[in-house]
């Protein structure tokens, strides 16, 4: 039988923990989305640069 250890929540009330986790998860996804956008923008500039170098 597993023992459940009650976690102490020093900064938030334990009943708020689920909502806080949802907000933090959403915030983390904004960083992931911004990182992907930066990567796509970099690829776009590389493609523009490569296309501009083909002028012979």
How would you describe this structure to a colleague?
There is one protein chain. Helices cover 64% and strands 0% of the residues. It has 56 residues and is mainly α. The chain is rod-shaped, with a radius of gyration of 23 Å. The mean pLDDT is 83.
Summarize the structure.
The protein has one helix at residues 17-52. The protein is mostly helical. The chain starts with 16 loop residues before the first helix and ends with a helix.
Instruction: Briefly note the structural class of the backbone.
Output: mainly alpha
Strand content: under 5%
Uncertain parts: none
Order of helices and strands: H
**Quaternary state, please?**
single chain
Helix content: 55-70%
Total number of β-strand segments? 0
Number of helices: 1
How does the major sheet shape up? none
Radius of gyration, in Å, reads 23 Å
Head-to-tail CA distance between termini: 75 Å
Mean of pLDDT: 83
The gross shape turns out to be: rod-shaped
